[in-house]
Amino acid sequence: MASLFAFDDVACQSLSETHGTPCFAYSGDVAEGQFRALRSALPARVRVAYAVKANAHGALLARFASLGASFDCASIGELKRVEALGLPPGRTFFAGPGKREAELRKALAMGVRIQAEGFEDLARVDALADREIALNLRVHPAFDIDEGNRIIGGSGPSAFGVDEEEVPALLAQAANLRHVRIRGLHVFAASNQRDASKLLAIHGAVLDLAKRLSERHGLVFEQIDLGGGLGVPYAPGQAPLDVQALGEGLSALLATHPWFDGELILEPGRFLAGPCGVYLARVVRIKESRGTRFAILEGGINHLLRPLLTGEPFPVKAVGKGTGEPSYTLAGPLCTSLDRLGEVALPELAAGDLLAFGSTGAYGLSEGMTHFLSHPVPPEIWVD
Ligand SMILES: Cc1ncc(COP(=O)(O)O)c(C=O)c1O
Known about the structure:
384 residues, alpha/beta, TIM Barrel, Lyase, Ornithine Decarboxylase, Chain A, domain 1, 2 domains, 8-stranded mixed beta sheet, 11 helices, 17 strands, elongated, binds pyridoxal-5'-phosphate
């Protein structure tokens, strides 16, 4: 399993000299290693659909496609990127709480499986379709969810899916639709979870929910989509997700639900793409202010927004300098005091020093605010 940094100091130095900084670099081997580790641990009845939002780099998508991945898209832009891969039907999914008509048209034209997030999606697809369309219903479950960093929102109010308790009303409302048929269930309830038993507890609850829905409403599920949420370490000492335990747990769950003979789907983004990426940026200046030491970098939340959103920094090292005690507040070059990449322990820094941020292959540049202040968009280097 990958370390926190896909590239060692020598490689970081050489990438920075060849391509300039700031830049992102992605290791094809590490991405492939993540995919293979997960795929080989899972039962054959589990499909792996890479969540494109984590990182839509063309070479990364092509690598996952060549390994047999399916793809989870959430915008017309992502659908077009996946369309360019020329995949056979059945390997693309389309989710999202605010799908516009043009996006639904595109999804129908591509023959992708739509995750309906409410009655509006069902009705719009029904109106656009000229044939029977099988789709999945995304449900926001009522069961309690221990969601570490609440990116998905736990079990409180949610913009995603239809609330579990509203499903009967939705089904009654949808009864007269002519073309759409609910043939799958989609539930995504947790994010960045590295504890396989916690993921499995949610997956078990989803299968129980599917059973209740099929018994009470006669729904026949070809697919149960368990969403993403497979976590990665962001700090030394954090244990990686035990994919073997996850695979064994999913086999056991399938065995305890003999009524379900369809396929399970996992939609990992972070797990597959996170470890392959490194973000390289140099220190522009060091500043002391009222007892705080700032290292001001070439890039900030325009390239890495996640630390600000979650309060959790990406792992960082000072290339060629080893580890150290002094603590720095890492600030970016933007004109806002929100531009922070974390409080970190690093050795004595000076202008020109190269910093490498690990595990930035997912929700790195894809989540950055690249337009803010119009700094150049950093190059993304694919290393095979
Ligand atoms: C519908 C859906 N599937 C999959 C993912 C990927 O999640 P993760 O990167 O945590 O695996 C997301 C992330 O927001 C999502 O919204």
